[in-house]
What does this fold into?
Amino acid sequence: MLFSVIGFNPPELVIIGPEFHEKEYFLEELDIISENLDIKIQYKAVNDPENYIIENNDLNASIALIPNPQGVTNLAERGHLYKLNSLMVEDSLINKIYPTHLTDIVSINSDIYAGWIRLFPNSLIWYDISKFEQYDNLNFQDFDSLISSTNKIADKGVAPWCADSESSASTGWIQTNWLEDIILSKYGPEVYDRWSNLSIQASNIKIFSSVKIIDDFIFYSNHIHNGPSSIINKEFRNLPKVLLDDKNSCFLSWSGHYFRYYIPDEYTYGEDYGVIKLPKITLDNTVVGLGDAIVLIDDSPSSRNVISEILSSKFGEKWSNYPDTEFISANKNFNHKVINNELTKYEFEIVHASLKQDLFRFDASEVMDRPIGSNLLWKFFVNFIRQGSESIVKLLNELDRQI
It folds into this structure.
């Protein structure tokens, strides 16, 4: 008996994925699964999981985290992944725990190649509470009312919007988020999906009119703190400091979940700053965002058991109990009452309200062919901001030729 106890060595399963914020909480969740399934689980962080899988013939790994759907379909097309159609998550097949969009973007010919662990919203407006409260005529009923309100503030000589967005070679990516928010809320998921799949031209009137809304937002006189040029010349990571600095007049920022990573520690949510979902243009409850997908690269009962546990509604409960948690489960059955952070709770609510109506859409730039979503669109917005309103038609036509 003593020999059998000493000699027992549970099997080990390796998960590869990127380094990421709050990884230590993720590892604690894996420890819970490890204990429940009596299996050792190791997480190996790599710079680029997608390319790591492609370039290494001897992976010694069973599961991988892939932070974008295009990476999933690329790996599936190359034959590196196993389909998950028959995977049971708690008492449901995997396709039953997500809305159609989230399974479609990680599927090929109806074969599902990934599940979703967590999601993040892009469609947010952050604000400085003390400066915000100085204006009692702000109207957040819808997007047009909000912009009309901030135009009136700008007319009085106060620049209401902080919009610094410089990001080295990636400058312009924040503006692609604005465009996606507008397309989804103004024209709905059908047009948004066509844009993501590039089955609608950039010069199409619906895309043009969406860019025109950004044009009016950027170039309305005194609307942007330090002027439109700050959008491509001022570092986006400093944006929270700019917003929360009492010396600056601007008090609103159209930024995604990422904004909270750069808020200085001395500021407190609910006291110094707040956040709301971007008001609707036509459709309410639309949210554009990002997420972490999980894939199967070595098919075995133990790896399927582990991936099923990671996708379950229980995964993330301990993570959610930390006061600084940012975990937003993609599972529709997750118990949001365990979330111990008011900001994360709000983000969870708006994300899941959109999921219920299948109005959550993944960042289109991450779904498009890479030379477009991760390069040409960024350059389009940089050139547009440099050249001004008159350049829209010319630049959209140039984008069509490049696509």
The chain has two domains: 2-121+288-362, 124-287+364-402. The radius of gyration is 22 Å. The chain has a mean pLDDT of 95.
